[in-house]
Amino acid sequence: MHINSPYKPNIDKKLLQYREEGWLTEKFQEWHAGDTSKTCSNHLGSETTLGLPVLAGLFLILGVGTLVSFVTVFLELLYVAHKDNLRTGTGISSCLKDRVWSKYSEIKEGWSGIWAAKESKSDQPCDVMSQETDAMNQN
Fold first, then answer.
1. Cα(65)–Cα(46) distance, rounded to whole angstroms?
2. Is 36 helix (H, G, I), strand (E, B) or coil?
3. What is the DSSP secondary structure assignment for residue 139, as one 8-state letter?
4. Is the pLDDT of residue 31 over 70?
């Protein structure tokens, strides 16, 4: 707590009250004496095993979240296909097919670009990469 804290007088007052009541001394003596009547058990963890009944709620939430995300993506594609249908006058099914195909191609191209970049970087020795980095930093 910093020197000019607005809470300092309140905390000092409460600590003084606890000390006057003897509560602070009592807690210190309990801690210092090692009062074992209120300690935890000696074993670590709990006896509950992590099985399907225990984790069922987690899997349920995960499944519902995945389902909601897929429905949201489908509704978004359907909405955009409907707008394309109004703009072009072609059928909504062909617009939806075009949108899905273009999104698939975009994702495929993005992933192939990532893999190509990783492969080209792994083909170069480390000293060549460091020389290129030094040259870019000088510019």
1. 29
2. coil
3. -
4. yes
